[in-house]
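We include the entry.

. . .
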Amino acid sequence: MIPKPLHLVNEGLAFLLELLAFAALAWWGFETGGNLLVHLVLGIGAPAAAIVLWGLIAAPKARWQVPLPGVLLLKAAVFAGAALCLDAVGHPALAWVFAAVALVNTAVATVDRNALMHERRA
């Protein structure tokens, strides 16, 4: 288990990454397509779909209790999608930094949660 201050920083970073992922999806959506309707549908629809799925599956108090691999798969899809969106709007370096930080943050959070679960069982 990681020290409490690092745990709190990592959890705060996780929340920030989630918000940034939704913002990246919106940014891409509003930049994509040939007309206003497409901009609106993608700019609102892409992050809305991600937010709903995240709330149902990946949020700390998710409606559906999905096994960890399913949660990690959804997180990977949202974060990878956000990185691809950042690249698509012309910011490849930002996309790589976002993807790397999201990967490390998720890995640390997963290891920390597993350690906490094992500690509670003991």
Notes: Residues 83 and 96 are 7 Å apart (CA to CA). The mean pLDDT is 93. The radius of gyration is 16 Å.
